[in-house]
Structure formats: structure tokens, C-alpha cells
Amino acid sequence: MRKQSYFSSAFFLSIVLILFSCNNPKQEEQKTPIVNLDHLMHLYDTILLPGGIDAGIVHIYSEYPNYSYEIEPNEGYTCVDDVARSLMIDQLRLSKDEALQEKYERMIRFLLFMQADNGWFHNFIWHDLSINKTWRTSLAEPNWWSWRAFWALASYNGNNPQLKDSIHKACDILSSNIYKTYLNSNFDMDNIQGVAVPNWLPLGTAGDQAALLIMGLEAYYKNINQDERALLTIDKLAKGILLTQKGDATNFPYGAFMSFENGWHAYGNMQAFAMLRAGQLLGSDDYTQAALNEINNFYPWLVEQNYLANFVITKKDNAFEMVKKEQFSQIAYGFRPMIWACVEAAQITGEQKYTDQAYALATWFTGNNPANTAMYDQTTGRCFDGIVSETKVNLNSGAESTIEALLSLQVLNTQCQ
Predict the structure, then answer these.
(1) Which of 42, 189, 301, 393 pairs with 249 at a CA distance of 20 to 30 A?
(2) Cα separations (Å) of 17 from 7, 11, 226, 356?
(3) Are 246 and 256 in contact (CB under 8 A)?
(4) For the segment 358-409, what is each residue's pLDDT rounded down to a tens digit?
(5) What are the sequence ranges of the domains in the chain?
């Protein structure tokens, strides 16, 4: 049985609210850090793709101390994953500034260029602007980059009719692929080290990817095509995610949604957020409550562990046990999903405790972490790439860490308005 969460401690919450709340009347540096696009714009570049396509990209790697660009030898120098993430930043997506609007639309063109003939998306391009079609993280298949492209494209907020038409065509093709792949799959289960998991999600058991796909389908349904199949697919994916939830308020792993097979990892752990959205869209209290169970019980336990990067569970004698765990590395991508889930929970329930919980989690960015190091610098917009140990921080600041930090702070700054 776990000890009482410090999220319920009045003393802890008073410290959090003094140091990090938007309601705090103290000095500006004690408030929620601002969303600064400077470093993201440093990573941004304009390229001319084959066919004369004027596109925008985001460099993946930015190396300390000068934050110059680097290329990954097996993958490339920019990718759908990071460009699509960037397009979800409200200061870019909703901006009235013409220069930012141009960058936004150029990045949309990059995503459209990366859609393969089979309807899925490739992920990486090389410096010669050719698409990487061979490396495993760039194959045109139902995987992370296809879901991120889907969500970003379906969330398009511009007024360019030609671009909007291209987006709708791309999303229609992709949604057709999604329906064929997931609506026709069987409701089968796997058993991995005694842990029962559904086998009709992306990659069979990937609840984390299913959550991202739900967000793409929600945006597609609301903004492009109110096809009943989108709701049916969301419901089927949510049913699967529900079955990945293990433990309860008093039993390990305290309502955590497994990420893949019988393991949990912090990065991309967006199941609670997606289940809250699915619950609202479909009118399902079961989905909403399952998400709140993870937020109420698992998140506090995770904080008590000083955060974990991942763990694996097994089931023995009708109880779940941890058979492997790693505390590092800790990255911005491991915190943004939890912060978003807490803010969403606050908006749905109206309960202040979830807002407080979001601020508490976000103090990881300002130094409340195992390395006691501020990870985000609001004066530059940089976020360090991760905490490697209690004594070592990766001082690089690439696209993923930068964007995930901005997305984390975005929802908190919105709460302050």
C-alpha cells in the first residue's frame, strides 16, 4: 500500500501555489514561465522541396553550447514527428502575425509532402531533401508519425482554401486507412507475464499510440468530417486503453495505463488526456472516470518515486509486481502528457485540485526535479534535452524537448487568462 500523496498535503500545495501559480501576486519570475518561441524559431528553417514546394521544417538536434544543428546518421535532419508537434503550439497555430502564419502554413506543406502513396506518412528527410524510406522510424506505416501528422493536419486553423482542400484530401485518405485497419480488427487479448492486455491497438498493445490516434480522430471528426466511423474507432480504441489500466487506489500500479505490452513509460503517456476527451465526446463516464483514477492515484505515486522513466510489471498471486524500473532519463515529453491531463480534468470537473496538480508537475521545468536544475529558460525558450542522473543534465536543446516544454506551459498560461 502506498503512502499518502504529497499532492494532498496542504503545506506542499501552499509552496507550489506561492512559487508557481498564475494567481500569485508575487514577482513575475515566480509566475508560470512564459511560452517563448525564440529557440523554436532558431530550429525552424525554410526549404524548397521537389516540385517547388515552399516548406518549413524544424531541425531535430541542437547541441550545447552553441546550439548548432546536428544530423542523426540513420534518420535525417528533420521529421514529421517534430514538425507536427510544433503545429500544436497555439502561439503559432492561432497567431495573427503574418510571419508566423507563413511559417505555420509552410510546415503544413511539409507534412503533406511526407504522405506516401499508401496513405500513411514517412517521417524523416535527408539534407538532400530526399525522403528516408528505409529506416524503421521513417517507414510509411500506422505508427507515431502518421498519428501526429493526422492530429496536426486535422487541427489546421488557417484560411488558405487550397491548403485546406489538400489537408482534407490527405486526412480522408488517412482516415480510410485507419477505419480499415482498426474497425475490422478482432477484440483479442494477449497475456504477457500474467498481465492481460488488448491486442487491437496500434502495434497490437500500444495504448500510448492509441491515445494519440484518438486525438487525431477527434480533430478530424470535429473539423473535417462527422463520419460515424470516427466515433466508432475512438470508442474501440478507448475500450482497449481501458483494459490496459492496472491496479487501483490502493494497489500497485494505482490505476496506471500501460503504454505497451506489460510496460509503462513516461514519454507519450497521453492515455488519461485522450480518455478524458473520449469520455466527453462519446458521453462515457467510464472513460472519464478511468482517466481520473490514473490522475488521482498513479500520478501522486509517481511523484513519490521522484518520477520514473519506465517500469515493467508482472502478475503473481492476483497482484501486480514491478519487475524492472528506470528513473532516468527524465524528459519534457514525460511531463507534458500528465500536465495536459490534469488541466483537462480541471476543466471537466471544475475542481481546483487538478489545476494545483498540473502546476506541481510543471515545477519539474523550474528545478523541482532529481537534478535540482531548471530545465526551461523562458528568456531563450530553450529546454534541456533531459535529466540523465541526479548529477547530470543533457544540456542540448533539440526539437522534442523544446516543443514539449512549450506545449506544457501553453496550457498553464491559458489557465491564467
Answers:
(1) 189
(2) 12, 10, 41, 7
(3) yes
(4) 999 999 999 999 999 999 999 999 999 999 999 999 999 999 999 999 999 9
(5) 43-184
